[in-house]
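In practice, a research group might receive sequence data for several interacting partners and want a quick structural hypothesis before committing to experiments. The following worked case mirrors that situation: the sequences arrive first, and a predicted assembly follows.
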Amino acid sequence: MFPFIFEWVWDTSHLLFMGALWYALSIMGLGVTYCVVKSIIDTNKEDSGSHSHH
Amino acid sequence: MIDDAALIPSDLKRCSPKVFYGGIAVVSAVLLWGVYAMFLCWFKGLNQTNMNDAYGFALWIWADLAVIALGGGAFFTGFLRYIVGKDELKNIINFAVIIGFICYSSALLILAIDIGQPLRGWFIFWHANVHSMLTEVAFCLTCYFGVLTIEYLPLILENPQIYKNAFWHHLSHNLHEVMAVFAATGAFLSCFHQGSLGGVAGVLYGRPFAYREGIFVWPWTFFLFTWSAAACGPCFTILITKITEFITRKKLVKDNVIELLAKISGWMIFTYIIAKIIDTAYWAYTTAPSMGFEIGQFYSNNSLYGYWILFLEIVIGGILPALILITKKGRSNSFLLMIAIICAVIGVTTNRWVMVLQVMAVPVLSFEEWYMYFPSWQEIATTVLPVAYGIILIALSYRYLPVFPQEQELYNS
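A structural hypothesis for the assembly, expressed as tokens:
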């Protein structure tokens, strides 16, 4: 799975297969991370906004 | 008795907890039967099945390929909704995602049983055979299941009790905002895993019944599988929607939404079945004879695999639904629509049956007989298990989540 695994070979097949897998996982991971971080910021903003009304 | 009124979206009407949980209990009994069979397979081994050297791919793999094809409604509807911009489909996309989630989680569950030693399931990632189409399938299936989970999550977060929490509320909103990225990723992954499942059959040089020629490393079956899943998957979504409407005795999705999806699906089936007929003719008159076979040898001298199966797949499961769904009169008539979507579902599942089981059954050497197979009860129980699980998940989602945006409006009218 990773270049440091003993079965790894630097060839086209490994680069294509594993590259595509990591690419898909990266998009999913980054997408979810973005949403979680933005939600934390939005929640904090909302909290500070509601405090300012009091 | 449980009082779950607070968990039900406030503007929606639902049956009493007694009726609901009574129904769930009945389906759970079937589920437990499947779970028992699953544990038998895990603890006692694959000798619980009737699979053998001839049938290494049997009922499970057919069920696996069938649910993956039927779950294709999720990626194709998502593609139409988020990438092509068919806005009306927002009214059915939630349900398509739930069905896709059920289908793909079922597919992974079936594989976990099929590999016999699920504790070694991670080997496929860690010790990947990068020359195998099945490795690509495993990668894409797992990733796409992740995508479906992400797509399902905002809907779960819209449960009234969860939605009260500010963070979950924002997370649901933000996930919706970037859903097109996940939908595009899902469509990409689906194209490859659906295709590679077909590709596996097409590269079987020793099995002339399945072997196909093609483009570069891809046999025609690669494209036919992706195409058929995109074509027939939405029909399965419509079918389950209609069944849900029948059980709940409520209209849940407006006719124009169903008709749009049916029309697109109809044209997809129409073009697919033309490609399938050309593929079958080329295989029958060129590929198979070049390997010393005549088409009749694949459909005779056995008790099960006659020409009827070819007729069922292509005419009943392909031409008939295509002709009904591409005509406005056909798809707007509720009886004909039901016939068409049932036929389309039968067509694609028959295709997967043929490409999994008939491939194994056909004798390839002159001294061989047809290999016949009947699944053990454990195989049947574990194949019924995902159906029971699917019913329970749909029931829970329908009860506690705002799955159908048009439900309230349709109820009031």
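Before designing any experiment, note the following. Chain B touches chain A at residues 125-128, 130-131, 135-136, 139-140, 143, 146-147, 150, 166-167, 170-171, 173-175, 177-178, 181-182, 185, 188-189, 192 (CB under 8 Å). Chain B is about 70% helix and 0% strand.
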